[in-house]
Amino acid sequence: MQRRTFLAGSLTTLTVGALFPATAAGATDAGEAAVDEDFLTVLTNANQVQIPLALANLQNPSDSVRAVARKARRLVSGYVWGKSSYHHDASLLAPLHWLAEQLAARQHEDGLYDVGNLHSPPDSSFAIQDVAMVYGLLDADDQPATRPHRAILEQVLRKAGPAIAAGGVHTPNHRWEVAAALARTHHLFPDRRYAARIDDWLDEGIDATPDGIYSERSSTYASEVTNHCLIGIAWVRNKPELLEYVRRNLEATLYFLEPNGEVDTIASRRQDQTRIREVWWYLTQFRELALHTGDGRFSTVAKSIEQRGSGELGDFLAEVLERPELAAVLPAPEPVPTDFAQHFPSQASARIRRDTRTASVFGGTDFHDIPVIASGLSTNPTFFKLRSGSAILDSVRLSPQFFSTGHFRSDGMRRVGPRTYKLAQEVKVPYHLPLPKRYRRADGLYALTLDGRFYASMDFPHRPKQYRTLRTEVTIVEVGNGWDLTFEFDGDETGYAIELCFRNGGTLAGVQALGTPGNHQLVSGTGSYTVGPDRIEFGPGNGATRVSMDPGERYTYLGGSLTPDGQRVYLTGRTPGRQTVRLRTS
Known about the structure:
The structure is a single chain. By secondary structure, the chain is α+β, with helices and mostly antiparallel strands. 32% of the residues lie in helices and 26% in strands. It has 13 helices and 23 strands. The strands form five sheets. The chain has a 15-stranded mixed beta sheet that branches. The protein starts with 12 loop residues before the first strand and ends with a strand. This is Heparinase II/III-like protein. It comes from Kribbella turkmenica. InterPro entries: Chondroitin_lyas (IPR008929).
């Protein structure tokens, strides 16, 4: 890795292809490229907004070490950048020194930090990546006034490196975070232990499916961690083959993008499976791969992020100062997909877009393979989402009243036609008969075993059973200006509720308010949800019977909830039978 900074801010051209000359910017030879001044202006202005906020909240006792390191990165970006109004501003030196001292003071003797997890190699690595970047920028700037700062940061890096190299991880993405932190530290202060551990982690193989999805299926742990780290390792360790995983993930992400800059997360196995995620986190990744591959679609996404201007775009200034080739003028933009029905077999999902109308169909929860509720599993019961401009139906869910087994979660998804998808689930709940004589005990002390919903000292596995069964099939069909969702139930007679959750900010009509704030019911006819000129109509209602959404015993026993945030509308009915909910957009 060479230090190819343009800290003085005076360059008008830069060399591209320095790392990957065969493919950078779609060319066959390294050459001169014009600097994208508009891009630099966006980052510079965003960083200049961040700095006073960081100074005003400098000594926040609730800051994690990662937050401390990120504040240092923001201050240093402005300090070293020749086009910043904070360039070599002496007023930043004392705050920056305080942050450096904090990074040293919070470090355990073994070189690691506590960040929620104790003495954590991966969580320390998140901070160390920023520390290494800060040190590198200050070292390239080489101002006498920052020598004390660099001395502290060098101490932090030298102390952390061996512990990170010797330590372990918790999650798939942690491997790449640790490897990237070691790659940066090894570049600054070479140590063969670091290189060996990087190779150990990489030798496990990158956890990406053929359709470009990492095993955690998470926008957060693709954009913030995996893609970012693989790019960093590729750059520092000269492993351009890693960029192919990033390219495939970004290509998949093109189909998860919403028109307003959000990224669909319905299939995630991490905390973002029920949260809103935005594409601005992907800025330098789309820019990097646009330059690397010449793909104009990636240029379009990168430029749309700049133009939208949301998010902490100033955080990317440090990356560009460190690697000026990222500031090259992008390949000519090409249209991103806006009319498609894209199937992702690895997560049993589909994304459909018709201009400003988008939908998600999902049947890939982990619940049928691992029937527990736990971090790292996909348990989101949302199986359909729909948007029409600003009118957003964030989730459609179904909950039968069936022995407190909870929400409908499809066991896979089948695409049975160009515009038709099928989801299905069968739930069987046993009544247990007397134990066969050979398993009976005179003392009555039987093994504590799982019935499927609860535990008891009943030796459930050896008991014959009688089952009550409910089979549910949902057929989802795209029609001219919307969707038909047909629910078919076969089995015992019981009630069910279908929940439509619309994002806050719009107006509901045609529904009745229930006692709980945010809850409504469509009794008959058609309801609507409107935001400005955008509208989603839904219905028809199926009667006034009220049926609560039962999240299941796994949640209720612990006082948990699966109630989504928003304006919720319920349509109810009884099994067995059939009901069609029509969703129309305008």
